[in-house]
Amino acid sequence: MENLKSTKTDTTPEISLNFQTHQLEFSGDSRPENAKLFYTPVFNWITDYFNYLYFLKDQSTSDAKIIITVNFKFEYFNSSSAKYIIEIIKGLNKINTDNPKAQVNFNWFYEDEDLLDTGKEFVKITGVPLTYHSI
Amino acid sequence: MFKEQKYLANEVKSIMNLEEVIPLFIFTGSFTFHEVNSHLISLKQYLESHISTKITKRNIYSILVECVENINKHGFGFENDNQIVTNYGYVIFAFENNKYKIFVGNFINQDEIEYIESTINEINLSDIEDLKEVYRDKLENNELSKKQGMGIGIIDIALRSKEPIKLTTKKYSENASFFSLEITVTK
Predict the structure, then answer these.
(1) Rounded CA separation B23/B21 (Å)
(2) What is the pTM of this model?
(3) Distance CA A26, CA A2 (A)
(4) Pick among A77, A78, A79 to test the B interface (most B CBs inside 10 A)
């Protein structure tokens, strides 16, 4: 398994998905030319990570849970990207429902009320709680 | 090709001639992703330096992104002698009677007119809570531009504008119509 890193551009966010530290972060703007194409490697990574965590679970003798931190630090995303962000939340939350030895905590950073409201809408849609942080 | 550009120029001119309209930012011509992107970068910088209210800035930028992407993705393409297909359109960001206005126009496939008109009428008759529900429903059910491009983007525009969207359509040719929207953003 490898970490996934994507550098920020004018139209795509910076993405850092680290399977060793369990720190997953998205930041910047998201309005890619083709959102499906852009986010496909993220979904592939999540699938691999899900399997990797199962492997870790089997190897581990400790009862301590693996804590995974997901930070959404978007400044802007278009309506096409919103769909994929929701799918990312749902995909990562499967770890919470299916893997008793791992826990995913979702953080939603917002710089204005609009982004905070969007986060709240995403909670209604996904049923996954987000912890809000003003920046 | 020049015929379409001339048509666009006349459309833009008719908006510029409106007495109360003060144009702040105009893009007109072909809407490829790279052109659209460079316009949006300039526009973002413009908004940063000219509009102080964060929420207004975000609403204007979000509406403009959805508008220009709509032209880029769903506009009617005209093929030139070199088989290059171009989507033509305009986006005008303006100030009118103490409100911001976004005028957007592009060619679309004639077959889509009826659906677009009924969608926008439906949006204009819906209240904010109804629109939020439709927005959630579309995101929840993974529904992106299910039919002819009029999907979640136009609902996002309506939610941000909070005022009726004015739609005008004109038949342009056998296969294409010209579609224009007037969107208001309160300061």
Answers:
(1) 6
(2) 0.89
(3) 17
(4) A79
Q: pLDDT band at residue B100, thresholds of 50, 70 and 90?
A: very high
Residue B59 near chain A (CB below 8 Å):
yes
B87 to chain A, any CB pair closer than 8 A? The answer is no
Q: How far is A101 from chain B (nearest CA, A)?
A: 28
Classify residue B21 as exposed, middle or buried by CB count within 10 Å of its CB (0-12, 13-18, 19+). middle
Contact B186, B99 (CB under 8 A): yes
pLDDT of residue B1: 60
Cβ B65–A78 below 8 Å, yes or no? yes
Per-residue pLDDT of A19-53, as tens digits, reads 999 999 999 999 998 999 999 999 999 999 999 99
ipTM reported for the complex, 2 dp: 0.85
CA nearest A50: which of A97, A6, A105, A14?
A: A97
Hey, is the C-beta of B54 within 8 angstroms of any chain A C-beta? yes
Q: What distance in Å separates residue B139's CA from the closest CA in chain A? A: 6
